[in-house]
């Protein structure tokens, strides 16, 4: 179901590079598909997984580690590449695409007709006149399993508003004040991560809308 953010228009800016599109030969509507979404780690740092046990690390210590990394190195903020960002991006992408194209999901890539994989290669903050956006750089790849054909392949930048979403347990909230870069930087680590997760949901939903529009375009 499409989400409407009360009190504001969701500003999502999308720009793309070259596109491989064979959706006329391999339509997605009603297809059995599987989903995979990943995010690249900060260069030079190991990639954590969503299932990692972080019970021995407090949010304060995690936030302090990220702060020290940012002060003493030129690498991006590792919070922006947290693996949960990919998870929430898919949480926005998958149900929105399902609602538009009536997909049948199957986690087994062996049984799925098509595999949809999203790779987020970068995530950063982009400041405009009034608030701050989160800018995601991603590549969406769709492969048809039977013929091993590339159905769709495109790299795109998507921006979604950065907004306050409480703690990480409230990350799917669709309401919240827009954040400036300064107000975001003053938040505790968990609330920063929650804001990024909310933006990821919004961006994933927008990507689903874009893909559905490609799927419905008339083909010659």
CATH T-level fold name of the domain at 13-44 and 57-125 and 135-160 and 204-216: Double Stranded RNA Binding Domain
Uncertain parts: 1-10, 49-57, 67-74
H-E string: EEHHEEEEHH
- The strand count comes to 6
Largest sheet: 6 strands, mixed
The helix count comes to: 4
C-alpha geometry: elongated
Mean pLDDT, all residues: 81
Helix content: 25-40%
Distance between the termini: 30 Å
Q: Strand arrangement, largest sheet?
A: 1-6-5-4-2-3
C-alpha Rg, in Å? 18 Å
Q: What's the architecture of the domain at 13-44 and 57-125 and 135-160 and 204-216 in CATH terms? A: 2-Layer Sandwich
What structural category arises from helix and sheet content?
Answer: alpha/beta
* Beta-strand content estimate: 25-35%
Identify the CATH class of the domain at 13-44 and 57-125 and 135-160 and 204-216.
Answer: Alpha Beta
């Amino acid at each position: 179901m499409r989400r409407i953010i009360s009190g504001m228009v969701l500003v999502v800016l999308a720009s793309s590079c070259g596109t491989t599109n064979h959706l006329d030969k391999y339509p997605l509507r009603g297809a059995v598909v599987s989903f995979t979404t990943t995010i690249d780690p900060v260069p030079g740092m190991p990639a954590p997984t969503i299932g990692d046990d972080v019970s021995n690390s407090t949010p304060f210590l995690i936030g302090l580690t990220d702060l020290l990394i940012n002060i003493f190195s030129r690498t991006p903020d590792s919070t922006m590449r947290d693996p949960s960002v990919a998870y929430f991006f898919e949480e926005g992408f998958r149900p929105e695409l399902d609602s538009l194209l009536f997909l049948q999901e199957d986690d087994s890539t062996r049984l799925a007709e098509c595999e949809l994989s999203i790779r987020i290669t970068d995530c950063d903050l982009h400041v405009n006149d009034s608030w701050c956006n989160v800018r995601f750089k991603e590549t969406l790849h769709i492969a048809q399993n039977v013929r091993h054909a590339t159905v769709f392949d495109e790299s795109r930048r998507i921006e979604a508003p950065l907004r306050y979403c409480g703690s990480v347990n409230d990350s799917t909230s669709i309401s919240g004040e827009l954040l400036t870069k300064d107000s975001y930087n003053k938040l505790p680590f968990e609330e920063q991560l929650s804001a990024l997760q909310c933006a990821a949901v919004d961006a994933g939903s927008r990507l689903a809308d874009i893909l559905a529009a490609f799927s419905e375009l008339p083909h010659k």
